[in-house]
Amino acid sequence: MKKNAKRKIFVSTIDLMEEYSIDEITIKMICAYSGINRSTFYAHFTDKYDLFEQIQEYHKARYIKLTTTLYQNFGKVRYNKQKLLQFFRIQFKYIYRYQRFFHAVFISHPQKDFVIEMVHLTYDSYEKVMDEYTDMEHHMYFVQYLIGGQLGVVFSWLKRRCKESPEEMSRIMLRNTIKMRELEETDLPN
User: Fold this and answer.
1) What is the spatial distance between Cα 72 and Cα 185, in angstroms, rounded to a whole number?
2) Distance between CA 66 and CA 55 in Å, rounded?
3) What distance lies between CA 3 and its chain's CA centroid?
4) Which of 89, 101, 103 is nearest to 166 (CA)?
5) For the packed helices 48-72 and 27-34, what is the interaxial angle rounded to 10 degrees?
6) Where is the HTH tetR-type domain (predicted)?
7) Domains of the chain
């Protein structure tokens, strides 16, 4: 029952986050939407900010686990395009699965600090992959450029309520990434 109550609180809070900013959400609202009393809320959280932090930490921990698992198994996929496509699939499937949460923190009521943390986590995972699996010179700039573009794509996708499938979005990102790589590999004028 305790775990179920906490889950209800998480789900209801995410619903509220779509409609209200964090400052506007009250514990009374959370309890009413969750169908719980205040003592149940306080059995799990010290205050609403603790709740928001736990929701964010949950998603950060899951995201780290997904990207770490992918990185550790990257060598098992034979072709680089397949590796990159799988990398994008995992990210877009995760965002799609939790699109209400991501829509709330990216679109409805943006939470800048959380978005920045997610960008840093993405950067770190991309850097690991680039260090291990490519010999690209100055790859940190490529990673920064890729993340900037990907953030724009994710933002637009969330804004459109994820109309395209995660698979379609993964393929779009792969095509865009390949185009950038091909451009980088062409001879540039001196």
Assistant:
1) 27
2) 17
3) 24
4) 89
5) 70
6) 3-63
7) 1-45 (1.10.10.60), 47-185 (1.10.357)
Do the beta carbons of residue 85 and residue 170 sit within 8 Å? yes
The radius of gyration of the chain from alpha carbons, rounded to an integer in Å, stands at 19
Tokens of 186: 């062409």
For the chain, the average pLDDT equals 88
Picking from 40, 6, 41, the residue whose alpha carbon sits closest to that of residue 27 is 41
The pLDDT score that the predictor gives to residue 78 is: 46
| This prediction's pTM | 0.84
Q: What is the pLDDT of residue 84?
A: 79
Residue type, 87: F
Q: Are 164 and 108 in contact (CB under 8 A)?
A: no
